[in-house]
Protein backbone atom coordinates (compact mmCIF):
# COMPACT_ATOMS: atom_id res chain seq x y z
CA UNK A 1 0.00 0.00 0.00
CA UNK A 2 2.82 2.36 0.85
CA UNK A 3 4.33 1.93 -2.62
CA UNK A 4 0.98 2.73 -4.24
CA UNK A 5 0.52 5.86 -2.15
CA UNK A 6 4.00 7.05 -3.14
CA UNK A 7 3.31 7.01 -6.90
CA UNK A 8 3.60 10.42 -8.53
CA UNK A 9 0.99 11.74 -10.94
CA UNK A 10 3.43 11.24 -13.80
CA UNK A 11 4.08 7.64 -12.79
CA UNK A 12 0.34 6.99 -12.57
CA UNK A 13 -0.13 8.47 -16.04
CA UNK A 14 2.65 6.28 -17.50
CA UNK A 15 1.41 3.20 -15.66
CA UNK A 16 -2.14 3.70 -16.97
CA UNK A 17 -0.83 4.01 -20.56
CA UNK A 18 1.28 0.85 -20.22
CA UNK A 19 -1.62 -1.16 -18.78
CA UNK A 20 -4.10 -0.06 -21.44
CA UNK A 21 -1.61 -0.77 -24.22
CA UNK A 22 -0.81 -4.17 -22.73
CA UNK A 23 -4.51 -5.08 -22.39
CA UNK A 24 -5.01 -4.18 -26.05
CA UNK A 25 -1.94 -5.93 -27.49
CA UNK A 26 -0.81 -8.63 -25.00
CA UNK A 27 2.75 -7.45 -25.68
CA UNK A 28 5.34 -5.81 -23.48
CA UNK A 29 5.30 -2.03 -23.94
CA UNK A 30 8.36 0.06 -24.77
CA UNK A 31 9.03 3.75 -24.13
CA UNK A 32 8.98 4.46 -27.88
CA UNK A 33 5.42 3.17 -28.17
CA UNK A 34 4.31 5.26 -25.20
CA UNK A 35 5.97 8.35 -26.68
CA UNK A 36 4.33 7.88 -30.09
CA UNK A 37 0.82 6.77 -29.06
CA UNK A 38 0.16 8.58 -25.78
CA UNK A 39 0.37 12.27 -25.14
CA UNK A 40 2.40 12.04 -21.93
CA UNK A 41 4.09 15.41 -22.25
CA UNK A 42 7.55 14.15 -21.30
CA UNK A 43 10.62 12.96 -23.20
CA UNK A 44 11.30 9.30 -24.05
CA UNK A 45 14.27 9.39 -21.66
CA UNK A 46 11.99 10.52 -18.80
CA UNK A 47 9.51 7.77 -19.68
CA UNK A 48 12.31 5.19 -19.57
CA UNK A 49 13.52 6.44 -16.19
CA UNK A 50 10.03 6.29 -14.74
CA UNK A 51 9.56 2.78 -16.14
CA UNK A 52 12.73 1.70 -14.33
CA UNK A 53 11.36 3.14 -11.06
CA UNK A 54 7.99 1.44 -11.57
CA UNK A 55 9.80 -1.85 -12.21
CA UNK A 56 11.85 -1.51 -9.01
CA UNK A 57 8.65 -0.80 -7.07
CA UNK A 58 6.95 -3.95 -8.34
CA UNK A 59 4.44 -2.43 -10.76
CA UNK A 60 6.18 -3.50 -13.97
CA UNK A 61 8.13 -6.55 -15.07
CA UNK A 62 10.41 -7.22 -18.02
CA UNK A 63 9.32 -10.45 -19.73
CA UNK A 64 12.10 -12.62 -21.15
CA UNK A 65 14.56 -10.67 -23.30
CA UNK A 66 12.02 -8.01 -24.29
CA UNK A 67 13.03 -4.37 -24.04
CA UNK A 68 9.48 -3.46 -23.05
CA UNK A 69 7.64 -3.81 -19.76
CA UNK A 70 4.38 -5.49 -18.76
CA UNK A 71 2.23 -4.70 -15.70
CA UNK A 72 2.35 -7.00 -12.67
CA UNK A 73 -0.81 -8.25 -10.88
CA UNK A 74 -0.27 -5.48 -8.28
CA UNK A 75 -0.40 -2.87 -11.05
CA UNK A 76 -3.47 -4.44 -12.69
CA UNK A 77 -5.30 -4.56 -9.36
CA UNK A 78 -4.45 -0.90 -8.77
CA UNK A 79 -5.71 -0.07 -12.26
CA UNK A 80 -9.04 -1.84 -11.70
CA UNK A 81 -9.60 -0.26 -8.29
CA UNK A 82 -8.39 3.27 -8.99
CA UNK A 83 -7.79 4.16 -12.63
CA UNK A 84 -10.22 2.23 -14.82
CA UNK A 85 -13.49 3.67 -16.06
CA UNK A 86 -15.92 0.78 -16.71
CA UNK A 87 -17.78 0.88 -20.01
CA UNK A 88 -21.45 0.64 -19.10
CA UNK A 89 -23.53 -1.80 -21.11
CA UNK A 90 -25.77 -0.17 -23.65
CA UNK A 91 -29.51 -0.60 -23.25
CA UNK A 92 -29.45 -2.78 -26.38
CA UNK A 93 -26.81 -5.07 -24.81
CA UNK A 94 -28.78 -5.31 -21.57
CA UNK A 95 -31.97 -6.21 -23.46
CA UNK A 96 -30.12 -8.81 -25.59
CA UNK A 97 -28.63 -10.47 -22.51
CA UNK A 98 -31.93 -10.49 -20.64
CA UNK A 99 -33.76 -11.96 -23.63
CA UNK A 100 -31.21 -14.79 -23.85
CA UNK A 101 -31.88 -16.04 -20.33
CA UNK A 102 -35.48 -14.85 -19.77
CA UNK A 103 -37.10 -18.09 -20.96
CA UNK A 104 -35.02 -20.09 -18.48
CA UNK A 105 -35.73 -17.96 -15.42
CA UNK A 106 -37.99 -20.53 -13.71
CA UNK A 107 -35.57 -23.49 -13.70
CA UNK A 108 -32.32 -23.48 -11.74
CA UNK A 109 -30.29 -25.77 -13.98
CA UNK A 110 -31.34 -24.18 -17.27
CA UNK A 111 -30.99 -20.65 -15.90
CA UNK A 112 -27.41 -21.20 -14.69
CA UNK A 113 -26.43 -23.08 -17.83
CA UNK A 114 -27.77 -20.35 -20.13
CA UNK A 115 -26.37 -17.51 -18.00
CA UNK A 116 -22.91 -19.12 -18.10
CA UNK A 117 -23.13 -19.61 -21.86
CA UNK A 118 -24.28 -16.01 -22.38
CA UNK A 119 -21.44 -14.66 -20.21
CA UNK A 120 -18.89 -16.59 -22.28
CA UNK A 121 -20.40 -15.32 -25.55
CA UNK A 122 -20.51 -11.69 -24.43
CA UNK A 123 -17.05 -11.51 -22.85
CA UNK A 124 -15.18 -13.96 -25.13
CA UNK A 125 -13.75 -15.60 -22.01
CA UNK A 126 -14.11 -18.90 -20.16
CA UNK A 127 -17.25 -18.51 -18.02
CA UNK A 128 -17.66 -20.48 -14.79
CA UNK A 129 -20.61 -20.87 -12.42
CA UNK A 130 -20.32 -22.82 -9.16
CA UNK A 131 -23.20 -23.35 -6.73
CA UNK A 132 -23.22 -24.06 -3.02
CA UNK A 133 -24.91 -27.39 -3.79
CA UNK A 134 -21.88 -28.62 -5.68
CA UNK A 135 -22.76 -27.97 -9.31
CA UNK A 136 -20.21 -26.54 -11.76
CA UNK A 137 -21.15 -25.05 -15.14
CA UNK A 138 -18.70 -23.72 -17.71
CA UNK A 139 -18.80 -22.41 -21.27
CA UNK A 140 -16.41 -20.77 -23.71
CA UNK A 141 -13.39 -23.00 -23.14
CA UNK A 142 -12.43 -22.46 -26.80
CA UNK A 143 -12.35 -18.69 -26.25
CA UNK A 144 -9.11 -18.87 -24.29
CA UNK A 145 -7.35 -20.34 -27.33
CA UNK A 146 -7.82 -16.97 -29.07
CA UNK A 147 -5.63 -15.29 -26.41
CA UNK A 148 -1.82 -15.33 -26.89
CA UNK A 149 -1.18 -16.14 -23.23
CA UNK A 150 -2.87 -19.51 -23.68
CA UNK A 151 -0.61 -20.56 -26.53
CA UNK A 152 1.40 -21.81 -23.54
CA UNK A 153 0.40 -25.47 -23.47
CA UNK A 154 1.16 -25.96 -19.77
CA UNK A 155 -0.94 -22.98 -18.70
CA UNK A 156 -3.87 -24.02 -20.90
CA UNK A 157 -3.66 -27.62 -19.75
CA UNK A 158 -3.66 -26.59 -16.09
CA UNK A 159 -6.64 -24.26 -16.56
CA UNK A 160 -8.70 -26.77 -18.53
CA UNK A 161 -7.92 -29.47 -15.96
CA UNK A 162 -9.65 -27.36 -13.29
CA UNK A 163 -12.95 -27.71 -15.15
CA UNK A 164 -13.28 -31.14 -13.54
CA UNK A 165 -12.60 -29.71 -10.09
CA UNK A 166 -15.66 -28.18 -8.45
CA UNK A 167 -13.81 -27.81 -5.14
CA UNK A 168 -11.11 -25.65 -6.73
CA UNK A 169 -13.60 -23.15 -8.15
CA UNK A 170 -15.93 -23.08 -5.17
CA UNK A 171 -13.04 -22.52 -2.75
CA UNK A 172 -11.51 -19.84 -4.99
CA UNK A 173 -14.70 -17.91 -5.71
CA UNK A 174 -16.50 -18.22 -2.38
CA UNK A 175 -13.67 -17.57 0.07
CA UNK A 176 -13.49 -13.84 -0.61
CA UNK A 177 -15.84 -11.61 1.36
CA UNK A 178 -16.65 -9.19 -1.44
CA UNK A 179 -19.83 -10.10 -3.35
CA UNK A 180 -18.24 -8.76 -6.53
CA UNK A 181 -14.51 -8.58 -7.20
CA UNK A 182 -11.52 -9.14 -9.47
CA UNK A 183 -8.92 -11.80 -8.66
CA UNK A 184 -5.35 -11.51 -9.95
CA UNK A 185 -1.98 -13.11 -9.26
CA UNK A 186 -1.77 -14.58 -5.77
CA UNK A 187 -5.53 -14.02 -5.32
CA UNK A 188 -5.97 -17.05 -7.56
CA UNK A 189 -3.18 -19.36 -6.47
CA UNK A 190 -0.13 -18.73 -4.34
CA UNK A 191 2.11 -20.72 -6.62
CA UNK A 192 1.72 -22.11 -10.12
CA UNK A 193 0.74 -21.09 -13.59
CA UNK A 194 -2.83 -20.01 -12.81
CA UNK A 195 -1.47 -16.88 -11.14
CA UNK A 196 -1.12 -15.64 -14.74
CA UNK A 197 -4.92 -15.59 -15.05
CA UNK A 198 -7.54 -13.03 -14.13
CA UNK A 199 -11.05 -13.69 -12.78
CA UNK A 200 -14.03 -11.35 -12.43
CA UNK A 201 -16.84 -12.81 -10.30
CA UNK A 202 -20.27 -12.04 -8.85
CA UNK A 203 -21.94 -13.86 -5.93
CA UNK A 204 -25.68 -14.45 -6.04
CA UNK A 205 -27.79 -15.58 -3.09
CA UNK A 206 -31.39 -16.81 -3.16
CA UNK A 207 -33.56 -19.17 -1.08
CA UNK A 208 -33.25 -22.05 -3.59
CA UNK A 209 -29.76 -21.51 -5.01
CA UNK A 210 -26.60 -19.63 -4.02
CA UNK A 211 -23.42 -19.49 -6.00
CA UNK A 212 -20.85 -17.53 -7.95
CA UNK A 213 -20.62 -16.71 -11.65
CA UNK A 214 -17.41 -15.42 -13.19
CA UNK A 215 -15.31 -14.77 -16.29
CA UNK A 216 -11.80 -16.25 -16.54
CA UNK A 217 -9.08 -15.05 -18.88
CA UNK A 218 -5.51 -13.80 -18.87
CA UNK A 219 -4.38 -11.29 -16.23
CA UNK A 220 -4.97 -8.55 -18.84
CA UNK A 221 -8.64 -9.52 -19.17
CA UNK A 222 -10.62 -6.62 -20.68
CA UNK A 223 -11.73 -5.29 -17.28
CA UNK A 224 -13.53 -2.23 -18.64
CA UNK A 225 -16.02 -4.38 -20.52
CA UNK A 226 -15.97 -7.69 -18.63
CA UNK A 227 -16.68 -6.22 -15.17
CA UNK A 228 -20.01 -4.57 -16.18
CA UNK A 229 -21.13 -7.71 -18.06
CA UNK A 230 -20.38 -10.03 -15.13
CA UNK A 231 -22.10 -7.59 -12.78
CA UNK A 232 -25.20 -7.40 -14.98
CA UNK A 233 -25.57 -11.12 -15.67
CA UNK A 234 -24.85 -12.03 -12.05
CA UNK A 235 -27.46 -9.50 -10.94
CA UNK A 236 -30.02 -11.01 -13.32
CA UNK A 237 -29.38 -14.52 -12.00
CA UNK A 238 -29.88 -13.27 -8.45
CA UNK A 239 -33.01 -11.36 -9.42
CA UNK A 240 -34.60 -14.34 -11.19
CA UNK A 241 -33.62 -16.79 -8.46
CA UNK A 242 -35.11 -14.58 -5.75
CA UNK A 243 -38.44 -14.43 -7.58
CA UNK A 244 -39.11 -18.17 -7.20
Give an overview in words:
The protein is an alpha+beta fold and 244 residues long. It folds into two domains: 2-83, Orthogonal Bundle (Arc Repressor Mutant, subunit A), CATH 1.10.10; 91-242, GAF domain (Beta-Lactamase, 2-Layer Sandwich), CATH 3.30.450. Helices cover 48% and strands 15% of the residues. The chain contains ten helices and seven strands. It has helices at 2-5, 9-25, 31-37, 44-56, 73-83, 91-102, 108-123, 153-161, 166-174, 223-242, and strands at 60-61, 70-71, 126-131, 136-139, 180-184, 197-205, 210-218. The strands form two sheets. It has a five-stranded antiparallel β-sheet with strand order 4-3-7-6-5. Strands 1-2 form a two-stranded antiparallel sheet. The longest helix is centred in the C-terminal third of the chain and has 20 residues, at 223-242. It starts with a helix and ends with a helix. The model has no long low-confidence stretch (mean pLDDT 92).
Can you describe this structure in just a few lines?
The chain has 244 residues and is of the alpha+beta class. The protein has helices at 2-5, 9-25, 31-37, 44-56, 73-83, 91-102, 108-123, 153-161, 166-174, 223-242, and strands spanning 60-61, 70-71, 126-131, 136-139, 180-184, 197-205, 210-218. The chain has a five-stranded antiparallel sheet with strand order 4-3-7-6-5.
